[in-house]
Structures are given as structure tokens and as C-alpha cells.
Amino acid sequence: MTDVKSSTTVTETRQDRYISDSFDRSFTIKPTPRVNKLRDALLGLNPTASITRARIETRVLKETAGEPMITRRAKVFAAVVREMPIDIYPDELLVGCTSVRPRCANITPLSVLPKGRASSIALEGTGTWQAGLSDLNDDERRELQEELAPLWREQGRTAHGHYGHNIHALEKVLKKGFLGIRKDAENRLARLNLTEPEDLKKVPFLEGIVMAMEAAAEIGKRFADRARELAATERNSQRKTELLKIAEVCDWVPANPARTFHEALQSYYFASLLLAWETSNAVGFSQGRMDQYLYPYYESDIREGRIAKEEAQELIDCYILKLNQASDAGSIGVGGVKADGNDATNELSYMFIEAMMHTRLLYPYFALLVHSKTPHDLFIKAAQLTSLGTGHPQYLNNDVMIAQALARGSMGGPSVTLEDARNAANVGCLELVIPGKDSGYLYIAVHDLASAMELVLTNGVRRSDNAWIGVETGDPRQFMSFEEVQEAFRRQVIHMRENTQIAGSLLEQKIIDLSPTVYESALIEDCIEKGLCREEGGAHYNFNTGGVESGSTDTGDSLVAIKKLVFDDKKITMAQLCDALDDNFQSYDDIRKMCMQAPKFGNDDDYADEQVAWVLHQWVSEFTKLKNLRGGYGCPGGSPIWAYIPLGEALGALPSGRLAREPLADAASPSAGKDLSGPTAVLKSMGKVDHAEILAGIVLNMRIDPSVFKDGDGDKRLADMIRAFIDQKVYHVQINVVSSDVLRAAQKEPDKYRDLVVKVAGYNAFFTRLSKELQDSIIARTEHKL
User: Fold this and answer.
1) What global pTM score does this model have?
2) Are 157 and 64 in contact (CB under 8 A)?
3) End-to-end Cα distance, the chain
């Protein structure tokens, strides 16, 4: 474990002295020694893996063979809650862990591939969590491969096993406790008419919820007993008092409604933790707008003198640190609007930003929901967090989010009320859901629009291996108009959507058959009333992701080059362009130079921007047609995370001038180094895209020169830029404030930059743990001034 001083030295080394100055003056409340100590302890931990949960699940599945799957899943959950090892670690004020120890992933038999190899846990491509079979001893590896995995393969279980990306009614746990939710299920059971076949079918699910809630209510008592056990031998009087306080809190929650801010935070964490215990391979769960859910408890404690602001801040800091013990801690959003449309900012909004400053780690993926009424002081506080160079926060345009949510209500199923739209929040990287009412997203694949562009120019053949993966759209050398090129692209996207529909339906049916959720469904509105788990359509809303795109910028820039060079200026023919692409421009330097000089997206040039907007519109128009088995329609959007690297490696040259195997543009951002007209121009280009119709949002990455914050007005300049972002009706922007010099130094001496956090594409990662290809792609991004 490093001490506080060494941690500060790391910060100064990587961020330069003026950023450290910004760091010092940004705090409203300084982090306590406890927070600094817990942070350093986390940085000193390497990710590990455990098969404990897999053992429990496999044993219960064997014991319950022949019972309804929903009953078996409820019994698995109850056993996991009662049997997973627990402990309380030094200096903790909030307790619980998603696995058997901090920074440990619950490896499942699904992690073992057919040939016995182990896949990395969770976000493999991020380089932040790469726990696998190598973390197990010989006996554990043998047990996993020879005893656990064969049963799961025999049952045909799916490696996805979950939709993920959802916000659950964790606030419901605060208000009712798990015993209250159990009572809801018991009341619904009592109202069933068992002479009706449809009602009779609901019994196993509702009995499963009763079983799950009984087990969930016991988790607090397990930790209370452990806290008293530790207190009995604790010699430090202060720590002894803290342990007894933990016991008192856990005796009451999460079984019962929270009464205090401390109880609310602990109950909220338990409720979130149990989601990971039910479905170990779920990703993208969100904590929601915690400043809104927790404020009544904070306000009451402050008013009644039960807590001081400094104590509450330390508890929030500890909560954020707890999230960093998990392999995927999801996201938190603060700010936004109230149900009446007025600004929702409260004191906790600032305190959560403060907590992110104090902790400066990967998790959570922290978002500020901004809108036309966001107060100036909140902009400045967020800008101070941005200036620290941790990649936090990402900025989400709440005005656009509301428009997206309302647009979802026009697609069939229940209409989205204005109140629900205003309560929408972010999950995963940036996607919106209606908290406590959505069934969750189903991700099939990243849809590579640049690949569709390549297939247009090869008549459906992939250049890398000559495989026929597209549809025949005609010999591109014979295209006589730009409209023919566009039509060929549209047909390739249709083909992509049709394949996605087939694959998605097959996967979803497998999930319904094998992995229905009981605990999670209990935290989604209407599931109890309908007597259906979320996988079978029990949720109030059943929106579907509709697909994540990559390559929209590369495609748009390619269309621009074709339009300008072939059809407008007539400098080259389609045949010459195709020959150059087939040759990866090796003998066609002159043509590549012209392609590179063609207008590029991100510079407020209508000629270029309209093509990217057109590409995204074609994608959205097709992928909103997707249907899921729950009765929902497609909501395209989200982040391709690191996929722009491997997708680029599989792709040939493009008319944009990009060479074969080079990375694609990250997410929907301008191509690396091509946005040369400043950040405002980037926002204006993005503003020409119809973000309201991209129902799950798209990612915009930007990098800002740290010297912007050397002078005192840097925070104000960034705040002004975010106001321009709102005015342009762009949905999302995430900002890295780190120089290329620092990034290159981190490549050379990673040990000195262990806490250097960057935004990749929707998610945060420790820079030194990324692949060299990902690191280089971040360095290649334009470093903007303000």
C-alpha cells in the first residue's frame, strides 16, 4: 500500500504542476485521510478471479433439475446470497463486495471456451480487467474445466446470459426494503385466480420473488454479525465504534426502509451488489441519478443534526471507492431536470462531483446531465473535475435525452410520459433508460458502417479474406451517379439489419429459456403485477438497443471523397478509385492525396457534415425496425467502446484516404487528427446530426490541451463550450484533458503513471493498461485549445 504522499506525487508527475494547482483549489472539502488511504489501497490491488459463485450456481442447478427454470434461478440467487463469503475491510464505512474480495471477478464456466482456454473477464478490450484462468490454482482450474463447465455446455447456456445496461428501482429498496417488496409479491400471489390458466403460470415467478426477497433481506444481518465479530477484538476505539455503527446500520437495511443518509447509501449499495450476485456476467448496470434519490435522506439528516456535511461527503467518497472494487461498476448521473422540467441540481450534485475529484479512479462512468437551465456554478464545478484529466465527467444533453425518450414512445407499446422522459438517465457508457421501468438492453454486435462502405465498393466481398458477406449491389466501376453509391450503401445496411434481427431473436430466446431473472425483475415496474420476469416482457417498457454503430465518420468522409472527386469535380473515375483501393493506394499516391484533402467531418463544413448526418440517418432508419421478443422496437445507439481498433484491422482501404488495417474513427467522433478548426467547429458539425432520432445516443470524444487550465479562466471557457454543446443539440461529449507528451511518457514509464485515467469511447480506462494500439489511437486525437 502506498501512502498519501506518494499518491500525490503520481498526480503531479503525470498532470504537470499547473494541473496539480487546479487540483488543490478545486476542492470544497478536502478528502479525508481515510479516503486517501482507501484509494491508495485500491491502486495497489491487481485484478483476480474466483469460481466460488460458479460452484454455488452449478450445485444448485444440479439439485433442482426438473423444476421450472424460473424456480431454479430463484434458488440459485438465494443460495449465492447466503453462501458467498463476506468480509469487512480496514477503514471501510460502507460494506459489501461483488465477489469474494475487492477487484475480483466472478469467473463462470462460460468463461471457458471449447478448447479449454479462458476468456478475460468483463471489459477485456479495455485492459482494465483481465482476470482469467491464470488467477486460479491448479485444483480450481481442473474443477472449472472438468466439473463445472461441462454441465453448462451440456445445457447449452449462453455466454451473454443477460441484456445488461439498465437502471433498476433501487430507490424502491430505500423506500420499502426487501421485506416490503416481498410483501408486494405475496399480495399479488393472493390476488391470483388459480382456476385461470394464465394466472396459474405466474405462480413460479411470484414465488421466486418471495424466495429472492427473503434471501436479499438477510444480507444485512450477515454483515452486521461480521462487524460485531470484528468489533469484539478491535483495539482501536475509533474503529470499534465504526464497526458497531456498521452493525447497527446493517441490522436494519436493506431488509427495511432506510431512515438515514448512511442507511440509504448502504442499502443502495447492497441492492446494486445483489444484481451482480444474480447475474455474474452482466455489464453496464447503472446507479442512476443518485443525487435525486438520496437527497431526501441527506436533507433530513442535515436538518435534524444527525450528520455534518463533511461526514456525508466522506460517506459519498467511500461509496465511489466501493464501486471501484467491482469489475464493472456501471455509471452515475447527476443534475438534469425534475419531473416539472425545472433544474434538479441540489447540494448532492456538487458533492458527487467532489467525490469524483477525491477518488480520481475508473469508476463509475460519471455523467453530468446538462440542459438549458443548468446553473453556472454547476458548470464550473464540473469543469474543475474535467480539468483534473481523469476523463470525468461525460456531459449528456438532458434536453436531447428527453426528446429521445419521448420519440421512443411513438414506436408501439406504452407511450413514454413526459414525467418518465424527464426522469430518464444514463446507463453503461451513455445510453438512456427510464429508471425502474425498462427491461434492459440486448447487445448483439457492433455494426460496422465502414464495412458496409467497403462492401459497396467490392459488390459485397470483404477485402481482407474475399468472403462474400454482403449483398450484390452492382459493379461500383459502373456507377454513373452519386445517388447509386448511396443506394448501394443503404442496401448493405438493410442486409446488416436483417442479419442482426435473426441473430438477436435466436439469442434472446436462449436467454428467456435459460437465464430468466427473479431478483432483477422484482426491481422493475410491472413485473410483479404482470407476474412475468423482464425476459418475458414483464417490464413497463421493453425497448431494444437496435445496435451500436462504428465507422459512421469513415463512411461519411468516404462518401464526401467520392462525391467531390468522382462526380462533382470529375478528377478521377470510379474505376480509378476502385483500383487504388484494391491496391491499398500503394501505387496511387496522387489519388490518396486527393482523398485526404477532400473535406472532412468535424470542421463545420456542410459539404462533409451532411454526408455523416445522412449515414447516421440511414443506420437509424433501419435499426429502429428491429423487434425483440418482449414486444419492443429498436433504439439504435451506444458506444462501440474499443471495437474501432479491431474493426479497422479487418478492413481494407477507404475513399477517405484511410489505409487498410488502420483504426476507424472512435465512435462518432471526427477521424483522428482531421478536426482542425477547433472544438466549436466540431460541435457545429455534430449538431447537424439529428441526435433526437438516435434513440440511445452516440459518442463524441474530444481532447483538450491541459494548458487551457493554466490560467484562471480555463474553467469558465470550458463551461462556455458546454453551453455551446447544449445549444447545438448534441447528445454527448466526453473530454480528455491530457497532453500528448504525458501520454507518450506514460507509454515509456507506465509505473510512474499508474493512475492516469483516460476516456476511450464511452468508458474510462487506466491508460497504461490499454493495448499499444488503443494508446496510440488516443494520442492521435486532436489536442484542442479553447
Assistant:
1) 0.94
2) no
3) 39
